[in-house]
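Hi team,

Filling in the usual template for the complex we talked about on Friday. All components are listed, including any nucleic acid strands or ligand strings, so the model treats them as one assembly.

SUBMITTER: L.P.
PURPOSE: interface mapping
COMPONENTS: two
RESIDUES: 543
SEQUENCES:
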Amino acid sequence: MHEEIVFCKGGGCTAKLGPGMLSSVLQKLPKGVDPQLLVGFDSSDDAAVYQLTDDLAVVQTLDFFPPMVDDPYTFGQIAAANALSDIYAMGGQVKTALNIVCFPEKMDLNILGEIMRGGNEKVQEAGGVLVGGHSIADSDVKYGLSVMGTIHPDKIYKNNACQEGDQLLLTKPLGVGIVCTAQRVGESSTKAMELAIRSMTTLNKYAAEIIGRYQVHACTDVTGFGFLGHLQEMLGDDLGAEIDSLQVPYIPEAVHYVNEFFLTAAAQRNRNHVGDRVDFQKVPFAMEEILFDPQTSGGLLVSLPPKDAELALHEIKALGIPCGIVGTVTQKDDKRMIVR
Amino acid sequence: MKQTLDARGKVCPIPVIETKKLLATLQEGDTVEVAVDNFIAIQNLSKMAVQKHIEVSSEKQDENHYLVTLTVTKASSNEKTEKTVCIPDSRIDKTVVVLSSDKMGEGDEKLGRTLMKGFIYALTEQDHLPETILLYNNGAKLSVEGADSLADFKLLESQGVEILTCGTCLNHYGLTEKLGVGSVTNMYVIVEKQIQATKIVKP
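RESULT (copied from the run log):
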């Protein structure tokens, strides 16, 4: 029997390897020693930064994954927005991008054309230029970008330099992984999927431009490890956080989908990784799952002083995507992430 | 009665969804034995079991083969029976709460506001939550930023309650930019929700 080729089997950042698995492998690799390398993989940061001159460094990142939506053009846009996001999370500007493509030989090439059209549009919107790529014949579709950007060496956003008393700003709604999973089993509403796609195709460029005008202590983008996984990285080994779950922006339908038990493996891996560092206090089960949900092309999570956070939030709200100040960085010695 | 389900080779959430469908056909004391091929699937099945008050245990057969046993208990089957007796289809129970004022009842205004705040708080404590809350005219002032009950509305929304505020009203009071919870709605929806409601609660 001939097996039908399925475009969307459930991808995006739910397809990422678990954080625990990854770190056990990376630990065994020798760390690169080069004084010009400002950020490498030892810091679990979003992208690598290499200094060229006193006032110029390059930012490099790579991201690709299988489709999480049925429409190839939309998938191309999302995959590109997701890959470009790492440059913005570092505070950089996008310059060039290379396509990474895996595509079955028997599949209609027009589909690939649509994927690349969507990707290219996002690179252009980012102010960058697509300069080449590499394609492999594979059993499943995968697409993404390798992106190069520039940054001033003194203006890199660290992902783990939060300060006590900072507020945590999240610029996109959570729950896109859950909504895409519901879509895959044929249960998601058009409205939920529309908001998920609008969020995933929105470049973090606009939020990054806004926070650039404020005093950012730390910044990352929320992707495969979920909100709490990325928050844990941000807090490092010293700090804790208090999260107000009522302020967390999310796609409303995600609550229903969790209550229907559309539970992904990736969210559970994130839960296992964060472990007992999170302390849920009377939080509904659905909200727990939303906070562990892997995000594809998720928003920026920014740690900044309270006054700056308020003003930045006000500006980011005008972008029209659900966002919010979701919590506070708490004192040293209490490493817990308390969610109320 | 004991049912079996082989969910090996299937990716989450499929094992959980198939198990859930099978459980829905069972009675108190029945068990389902689900075969899965990874530990994460056991954890996801266990999360569902805890939410549904179902007893769960698991056992490793060999590498990539685990058996998860779920037993329908009295608590879980009660939950189901109660639903089937009173609410054959949960969507048929459409309770709509209509808040057309920021005050509850006639009389002293300050008292009216305090009562309304108390009403919304008490709503969050109910076992059976309404499907929808409609806010219009002065009621639209309850769901905006800075409103006393905003946190309560957000809690209700996080538990699946749909919160709809009249767009014309927000606009009239200059509050369009300030909506703090739920979404904006129009008169067609306000009428439709009330016509289709099985019960309307209007304090």
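MY TAKE: Chain A has two domains: 12-155, 167-339. The radius of gyration of chain A is 19 Å.

Thanks, L.
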